[in-house]
Design a protein that fits this description.
By secondary structure, this protein is α+β, with helices and mostly antiparallel strands. Helix content is about 45%, strand content about 15%. It has 16 helices and 11 strands. The chain has a 6-stranded mixed β-sheet, with helices on both faces. A 5-stranded mixed β-sheet has the order 7-11-8-10-9, with helices on both faces. β9 and β10 (about 335-340) form a beta hairpin.
Length: about 475
């Protein structure tokens, strides 16, 4: 999020962004018109976007499977399979994928989320066939061996201990989500519960691979310095012969409307308390989701935002405060408020201060000057975030997972349409006590040695993991 430097520069800054904002929708439409989509005979969707600013290409394979596709008692399979995808095929030895990409001057990684598992490599555009051959091979020929499975399971368990169980804030967030979600599979963490990781078997993983890793349940996104008419036949030749497979049922249960506030507290060794509030909200596809984007920016869009000015500067109550709206989630998600009290401050006072800021949104119309500033921040962040080939590909893919990549063009116009009345209406409807789950971290003194760091406010294991 772009931060306003100070009031002296504010007028010039907003003036420049107003010009930029008026240009942005045309730029986004051009991006949509330049992108190309086709679907191979085996069901594999291909999205190509030529970008000739550098002799590079970023090649992504995204599978429509994440922790939301798992079942009770077998959580963590999506993330575990992501690890195992680097353990070799019938043709390539373990870790040879990464070595080959590096030898060709590229970089590669992968990430598992609730809604998808993505793999990518970025390298010189004249070497893109290298990654295509590797990805097509492991889409159908993964060599899942017991010895690799046993070793990687220990790696994942240690990752869970470090990222969640030894991080008080991440642990609280995990427990809050398990309380807020009761039916839908956002209830469990992406990395999985420790007991499930210990319990699932190699045969479970093989079944999961056969079910979800096939062309009909995947898509490719390629952005970079290539010509569509030259690359597409190569894609068809490389991937077109892979058997189609079945499309698993993508639908999952969602939670009914919450009928009252839920609360949870966690006691962990920590230096400071932590407060997080989650409200059930809609995802992409409803205009209300864009209003929530604006509300999030109003509350936490830099040092001129409401939470920073009121809670950090004026009241000197918190070390940091933030808001987060997960608009690009496959299923309805949560709108989050986070805050870390300053030493000596009480969590109850912090929670009350957060409530006051929500009530202010509900009762007082946002002034036009503040609203336009926030819209400009969102517009500039949205567009500048597409400056790299990689982030262009990620944006196309994330929208494709949730709805369609073409919905990218709706973002800026939808943000521009938000009115002060919309903000009041949406805040009253969704940001109310009956629709929220409140989590509080109660710090415990260290048993021995220094206390573990509190860590930054965030989603813990909810982001890309590997």
């Amino acid at each position: 999020m772009i931060k306003s430097p100070n009031l002296v520069k504010y007028g010039l800054w907003v003036g420049l962004l107003l010009v930029f904002f008026s240009w942005a929708p045309a730029g986004q439409a051009e991006l949509r018109e330049q992108a190309f989509e086709t679907t191979l005979a085996n069901g594999l969707k291909v999205i190509l976007l030529e970008n000739h600013k550098a002799p590079l290409a970023t090649f992504h394979v995204w599978y429509r499977v994440g922790s939301r596709n798992e079942e009770w008692g077998q959580t963590g399979l999506s993330h575990m399979l992501e690890h195992m995808m680097f353990k070799g095929t019938k043709k390539y030895r373990p870790e040879e994928y990464s070595r080959i990409i590096q030898e060709n001057g590229g970089e590669t990684n992968a990430f598992t989320t609730r809604d998808y598992t993505g793999y990518f490599a970025t390298l010189r555009s004249d070497r893109v066939q290298v990654v295509m051959d590797l990805e097509a091979d492991r889409m159908q020929n993964l060599n899942l061996r017991e010895e690799d499975f046993a070793t990687e399971r220990q790696v994942v368990m240690e990752e869970r201990r470090m990222r969640t169980e030894d991080d008080p804030q991440s642990f609280l967030l995990e427990q809050l989500e398990a309380t807020a979600y009761q039916l839908q599979p956002y209830h469990w963490p992406i990395i999985g519960w420790m007991e499930d990781i210990q319990r699932f078997t190699l045969e479970d993983l093989k079944t999961y691979y056969r079910t979800y890793y096939n062309p009909a349940n995947a898509f490719l996104v390629v952005v970079g310095d290539f010509k569509k008419e030259e690359l597409l036949p190569r894609v068809e030749k490389t991937f077109g012969g892979i058997p189609r497979g079945e499309i698993p049922n993508p639908n999952r249960p969602t939670d009914p409307q919450q009928s009252g506030e839920r609360r949870i507290s966690v006691k962990k060794e920590a230096q400071l308390p932590f407060v997080v509030i989650g409200y059930h909200v809609p995802n992409l596809g409803q205009q209300e989701s864009y209003v929530l984007e604006v509300i999030s920016a109003l509350l936490s869009g830099g040092k001129s935002s409401r939470l920073y000015r009121r809670l950090v500067q004026e009241k000197q109550l918190v070390l940091e405060a933030d808001a987060e709206n997960s608009i690009l989630s496959r299923d309805p998600s949560l709108f989050y408020l986070y805050a870390t009290p300053l030493p000596g401050k009480e969590s109850a006072d912090v929670e009350k201060a957060l409530e006051e800021e929500i009530e202010r949104l509900q009762k007082e119309p946002v002034e036009n000057r503040e609203l336009e500033k926030v819209k400009n921040q969102l517009a500039s962040s949205f567009i500048y975030g597409q400056d790299s080939l990689y982030f262009q590909a990620v944006l196309l893919a994330r929208y494709e997972i949730v709805q369609t990549w073409r919905a990218i063009d709706q973002y800026l116009p939808a943000i521009q349409r938000v009115t002060p009345e919309d903000i009041q209406k949406v805040a009253r409807r969704y940001l109310n006590p009956d629709n929220r789950t409140v989590g509080t971290l109660v710090p415990l003194p260290p048993k021995e040695g220094p206390a573990p760091p509190a860590g930054p406010a965030g989603r813990g294991a909810g982001g890309p993991v590997r």
